[in-house]
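Feature request, filed as a ticket because there's no other form

It would be nice if the structure record came with a short human-readable summary line next to the tokens. Right now we just get the raw output. Example of a typical job, pasted below so the devs can see what we mean:
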Amino acid sequence: MSNLLKKFKANDYVLLFSAGASVGTLFLWAASYIFPEGEIVQGRRVFENIPKVLQYIFYVLSAASIFISGYLFSLRVKNWNRGKAEKRNTTIGARLSSLFDGLLMKTVLRFRAAGFPRLLLFSTHRQS
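Raw output as currently delivered:
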């Protein structure tokens, strides 16, 4: 069993989660037929005036879009796993200095031709 878990990578878990979510959506669709709403005192029934064909299309497309989104995100996770660990040989002081450079917009001024007008735009912008 432990060898099976070692074979799974992070993108496989994302794919399994999205498959479970799409199957769960289809289960909720089936559960709406197994457990009807009963008497509604106030409000209206879910999908009251919607034809059955549109309900089927809604649930199938919802499950498909959840699975496709999860599949595409699993590809993104697979791409992230290809990278190497970042080398951080800097000290905390150097990292804080670069943080304040970004917050004070000194990084915008690296390219003076575009940075200075941009800095002027940011400095004149006011919230209403």
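Something like this underneath would help us a lot:
The chain has five helices and no strands.
The chain has two domains: 2-81, 98-124.
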